[in-house]
């Protein structure tokens, strides 16, 4: 093998190894099929946020992020709350919760999201809840995780 061929072989080997390392970076945790839930430990302004994900074939295929009041009423269903928040914050629960969920589904195991203006506190809680449900899914633990 001449010098040029050896050099090309070394470069190709390095590229193959690099691609393998990069491809494996996002797949360190294997998620088990099932439904996983996390909820905040306390109510904030009358609402307790929660996140439920469904995993199938090591992928998050669906998710629900929302909040409920003490009687179980869902925040995204509260039209008065929605109108008031839209006027003051420029967003509302049914909009920003779907945005955060889509970011999780698109990123899969990534728990950081781009904050939605007017819903940054919920974004911070979402990141905590996402980390908790991903831990639950990696362990195959379907118990509800409670997040501080």
Characteristic terms for this protein:
148 residues, alpha+beta, 47% helix
Give me a quick take on this structure.
The chain has 148 residues and is α+β, with helices and mostly antiparallel strands. It contains 4 helices and 4 strands; from the N terminus they run αβββαααβ. A hairpin with a 2-residue loop joins β2 (48-56) and β3.
What does this structure look like?
The protein has 148 residues and is of the alpha+beta class. The protein contains four helices and four strands, in the order αβββαααβ. The protein has a four-stranded mixed β-sheet with strand order 3-2-1-4. The longest helix is centred in the N-terminal third of the chain and has 23 residues. The chain starts with a helix and ends with a strand. About 14% of the residues have low confidence.
Helices and strands: which structural class?
Answer: alpha+beta
The overall pLDDT average reads: 82
- How many angstroms does the end-to-end distance come to? 62 Å
- Share of residues in strands: 15-25%
């Amino acid at each position: 093998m001449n010098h040029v061929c050896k050099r090309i072989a070394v470069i190709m080997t390095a590229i193959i190894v690099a691609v393998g390392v990069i491809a494996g970076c996002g797949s360190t945790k294997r998620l088990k099929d099932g439904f996983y839930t996390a909820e905040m430990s306390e109510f904030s302004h009358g609402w307790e946020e929660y996140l439920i994900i469904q995993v199938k074939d090591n992928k998050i295929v669906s998710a629900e992020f929302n909040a409920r009041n003490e009687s179980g009423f869902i925040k995204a269903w509260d039209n008065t709350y929605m109108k008031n928040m839209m006027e003051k914050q420029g967003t509302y629960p049914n909009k920003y919760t779907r945005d955060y969920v889509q970011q999780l589904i698109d990123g899969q195991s990534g728990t950081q999201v781009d904050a939605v203006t007017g819903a940054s506190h919920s974004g911070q809680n979402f990141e905590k809840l996402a980390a908790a449900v991903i831990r639950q899914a990696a362990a195959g633990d379907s118990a509800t995780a409670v997040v501080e």
